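wait is this the right file?? whatever heres the structure
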């Protein structure tokens, strides 16, 4: 009877612990979601990891629990609740949410194992920092590129706090977030154990770590003034439906005419650039036969009437594959022939002297890039139902030139890659034009989040940004990350602004994601330490087992 009571009590305790862990996991996912644009309660990101770290500590101290699945639940909630709008473009979003949550849970559990083996104390929580930052570095590099949820992005809604991104980039924000979360967790743990001295030390450090970056940033923001030559730019939002008009050849001429009609009333003798969106030229353009393009002819005629300006616009371009390169993965075969061609997502600059172009380098997974191991799909798309396959990219960022200006033109998804955008500025770009097509997602937080991230690129590089979206949110952002003007969703519009064309290169633009690289090196050190500790522990366990067997025989 007594054994049965004890058994029931243990079962109830186990169920209680399980329910408690699930609640904390849901709380963590909810806090991280609420910190993100467009909820935008950014300070919540400072406590988003605290519930998970408390669960991790309980399990590290011997309590039963499956940390991997608890953390997976938290990260799945965060992924789905923050980027649910991807579903509007593709049902493959489900796989993206699950995979990203699995990657995050794996990182968190490797941190847990390292802490248990190396230092099962509150300060061991700091091992999470290099692991997580190294993971964020991977989100820029591997095939499934998805830096959307990198922690430093949360501060796009309170950009006055992170003016020092011109030195650290978004990785500095991630470092800040993780350290604050860990210090708060350690304060709670020291309070529970009634360790007064460590508690007071952590509280003091916590206050300094939270307040000093904000105070420094506010000071920078207050005193920084846009630098460079005045440059007048017109941005067009032609507002066509990508699900219908983009693939309706009868509307191609009309879209170009809409761009001309919207921009024309705003042109002045001082206008240097007219900027339109990604894929605004919907007629495919062969780069060796640009004179045959109806869209380019209309835009050339327009620019010839206003030679003081250049038209920057997005379009799909094609070129023939050089002989001997037929096995290049992005090469596409024309059935019934021995000819191969490349397809590009391009930014075009049209002026009275001719045409310049650059091709998108950071491709959207699934839509524009298929991994090579999925070669059977290379001429197709696994999302949006568009047969686009893998596009041919430029090997590096390329600036476009006009009127003494060099401009960087990140295309859509590229604007989420801080180091990549900085490479335009390293090559002399004095203005950044983000051209995008955010209409795939509909009226959801997707296009709003994308717009917010451009504010961080402006701060990192101290460049003014003109942003043209097919529909969604177009606008102008100054070098401090302030929004000067913006358009409304699903309204054709054009706006004009005088921007400062800055040529100074920031520390971040020069050195890129150096903090993340340091984190990668530290991660290797931790992994080697973890492996060594595990091997040593295994050897010791075998010796202890042999000793125990001998003692029993005696």
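ok assuming it is, sequence goes like this
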């Amino acid at each position: 009877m007594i054994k049965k009571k004890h058994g029931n009590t243990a079962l109830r305790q186990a169920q209680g612990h399980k329910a408690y862990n699930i609640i904390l996991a849901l709380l963590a996912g909810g806090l991280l979601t609420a910190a993100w644009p467009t909820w935008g309660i950014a300070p919540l990101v400072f406590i988003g990891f605290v519930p998970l770290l408390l669960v991790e500590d309980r399990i590290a101290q011997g309590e039963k629990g499956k940390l991997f699945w608890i953390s997976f639940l938290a990260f799945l909630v965060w992924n789905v609740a923050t980027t649910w709008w991807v579903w509007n473009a593709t049902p493959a979003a489900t796989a993206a949410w699950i995979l990203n949550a699995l990657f995050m849970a794996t990182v968190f559990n490797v941190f847990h194992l390292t802490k248990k083996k190396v230092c099962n104390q509150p300060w061991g929580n700091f091992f999470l920092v290099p692991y997580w930052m190294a993971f964020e570095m991977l989100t820029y590099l591997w095939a499934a590129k998805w830096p959307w949820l990198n922690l430093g992005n949360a501060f796009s809604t309170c950009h006055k706090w992170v003016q020092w991104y011109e030195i650290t980039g978004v990785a500095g924000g991630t470092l800040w977030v993780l350290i604050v979360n860990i210090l708060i967790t350690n304060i709670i743990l020291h309070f529970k154990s009634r360790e007064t001295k460590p508690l007071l030390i952590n509280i003091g450090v916590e206050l300094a770590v939270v307040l000093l970056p904000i105070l420094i940033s506010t000071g920078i923001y207050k005193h920084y003034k846009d630098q460079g030559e005045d440059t007048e730019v017109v941005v067009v939002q032609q507002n066509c439906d990508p699900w219908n008009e983009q693939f309706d050849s009868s509307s191609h001429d009309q879209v170009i005419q809409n761009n001309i009609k919207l921009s024309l009333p705003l042109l002045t003798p001082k206008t240097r650039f007219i900027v339109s969106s990604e894929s605004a030229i919907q007629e495919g353009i062969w780069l060796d036969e640009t004179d045959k393009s109806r869209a380019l002819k209309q835009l050339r005629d327009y620019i010839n009437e206003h030679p003081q300006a250049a038209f920057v616009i997005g379009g799909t371009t094609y070129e023939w594959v050089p002989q001997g390169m037929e096995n290049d993965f992005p090469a596409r075969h024309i059935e019934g022939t021995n000819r191969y061609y490349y397809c590009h997502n391009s930014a075009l600059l049209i002026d009275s002297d001719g045409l310049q172009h650059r091709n998108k380098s950071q491709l959207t997974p699934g839509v524009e890039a298929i991994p090579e191991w999925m070669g059977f799909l290379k001429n197709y798309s696994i999302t949006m139902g568009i047969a686009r396959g893998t596009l041919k990219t430029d090997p590096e960022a390329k600036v476009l030139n006009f009127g003494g200006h060099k401009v960087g033109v990140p295309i859509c998804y590229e604007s989420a890659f801080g180091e990549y955008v900085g490479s335009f500025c390293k090559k002399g770009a004095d203005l950044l034009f983000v051209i995008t097509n955010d209409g795939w997602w509909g009226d959801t937080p997707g296009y709003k989040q994308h717009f917010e991230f451009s504010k961080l690129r402006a701060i990192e590089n101290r460049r003014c940004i003109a942003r043209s979206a097919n529909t969604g949110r177009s606008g102008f952002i100054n070098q401090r990350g302030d929004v000067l003007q913006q358009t409304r969703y699903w309204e054709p519009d054009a706006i004009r602004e005088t921007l400062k064309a800055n040529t100074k290169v920031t520390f971040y633009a020069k050195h890129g994601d150096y903090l993340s690289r340091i984190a990668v090196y530290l991660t290797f050190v931790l992994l080697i330490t973890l492996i060594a500790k595990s091997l040593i522990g295994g050897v010791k366990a075998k010796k202890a087992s042999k000793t125990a067997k001998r003692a029993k025989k005696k």
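Confidence is low (pLDDT under 50) at residues 382-387. so i think its the right one actually
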